[in-house]
């Protein structure tokens, strides 16, 4: 874990490479001359002078495209016009070196992603195999883990995709209910690692009608939460390419989620750390750093708590688990602890991580949560003179900043 008490002398010994547009070849850094690379200028800057150098670049009309850690290998590569990244602590597993070049980090090949194998007019009928409550006693609301049988069809999917559910019955106009999409909570092999099932994490939606004040329950979520084992359900899909898990087994995977937004992250983590999954995927042996920042109202609402904490205990160097429990924990201002406060607390570390080419960020949960995350990251990047909105756009273009909120 990043330690904020690191001495100043140690900090000043760290070097970072700025990729800058808009400066001529004579734009000189404090410690080394810039090197021309792909239409930009690369400037090596010590940690202690990052703010001053950022301000100097901006005053000269330059634009900071990216900032990367540098090491001895990077300095050697710069003499040949290239850049190599340092292997930071957040991407290193015990006894393994994960130093990477820019070309080694890779996202999922989206051309090979299965999409719409089953459509609304001809859905797949899958039997409910199990329907289990995830919220502990005295928790808030109802959240179910549901598993469906896929053995009678050709529905297959990847981690990070969604499926559609068409609930039984008709709406108030006598028409079939509309399809609802749910993030898949299982790996591509299913919970039983036999390629014959798909799982969902579903919260029963309940709210008060603004006019009558009466309690209203969501049509599809109520239908799913009340399913009997053996009951068949109309399923469509899969769909979605935004949240696909990167293929790189040495990557930093940062996950920020609230409530049932944990669904795709469960799929990622099971693929990374469950014994049977690791046996089923010899070509994907995760050795990187996975970090889940999970927002929930109460301890009883921590979904998949025992399994998450078991994985953290078994792989302490590869999996970090951070909770934001709003009704039990306090933020620095004495208010409720939400996910954006955890991001703000760890903003310096997260900012360093996203500057590494093999860091992928995934955000899933209630719409609006991304605003607080962006605010915290913007405050930190500004210290280096970097506009967060612009930098986030470069991350999204590289498929390294992925958001799915609802």
UniProtKB/TrEMBL annotation:
SUPFAM superfamilies: Ferredoxin reductase-like, C-terminal NADP-linked domain (SSF52343), Riboflavin synthase domain-like (SSF63380). PROSITE patterns: CPCD_LIKE, FAD_FR. Residues 121-245 form the FAD-binding FR-type domain. The lineage of its organism: Bacteria, Bacillati, Cyanobacteriota, Cyanophyceae, Leptolyngbyales. Residues 13-70 form the CpcD-like domain. Residues 72-112 are annotated as: Disordered. InterPro entries: CpcD-like_dom, FAD-bd_FR_type, Flavoprot_Pyr_Nucl_cyt_Rdtase, FNR, FNR_nucleotide-bd, FNR_plant_Cyanobacteria, OxRdtase_FAD/NAD-bd, Riboflavin_synthase-like_b-brl. This is Ferredoxin--NADP reductase. The keyword Acetylation does not apply. Keywords: Antenna complex, FAD, Flavoprotein, Membrane, NADP, Oxidoreductase, Phycobilisome, Thylakoid. It is a peripheral membrane protein. Its cofactor is FAD. It comes from Leptolyngbya foveolarum. Residues 76-104 have a biased composition (Polar residues).
